[in-house]
């Protein structure tokens, strides 16, 4: 079984979705693995990973607004490490998650025609990293 580990990085804005699909596809291609799995991991506590449509950026605004309704930024959290967005960011990150697994088929992460991979930032701007481990299925 072959494995390959790659890393991507970016500088985020205050809050929002940052597409990382091209970086993930590049790392998968660099692996040389044609069929298997790609495991993505983001080791930060106030940003997460998600797959959603890339066609209309207003959908990302909708998602961020809905997450803010579920977990509003406020000053009465028990945990206030840096800022109120830090505390709410921890909860939002836990809701969306910091890991995902993708199928690798024909040397590419297997996505739907309108799907993109995004890093969701809840407490930026920050320098963020994510990791991709590609594993062959043979």
If you had to describe this structure to a student in words, what would you say it looks like?
With 138 residues, the protein is an alpha+beta fold. 27% of the residues lie in helices and 38% in strands. The chain contains 3 helices and 8 strands, in the order E-E-H-E-E-H-H-E-E-E-E. It has helices at 21-31, 58-70, 84-96; strands at residues 3-11, 16-19, 36-41, 47-53, 99-105, 108-109, 115-121, 127-136. The strands form 2 sheets. The chain has a 5-stranded antiparallel beta sheet, covered by helices on one side.
Task: Show unreliable segments.
Answer: none
Radius of gyration: 16 Å
Strands, total number: 8
Q: What letter string, H or E per element, gives the SSE order?
A: EEHEEHHEEEE
User: Roughly what is the average pLDDT, rounded to an integer?
Assistant: 92
| Order of strands in the sheet with most strands | 1-8-3-5-6
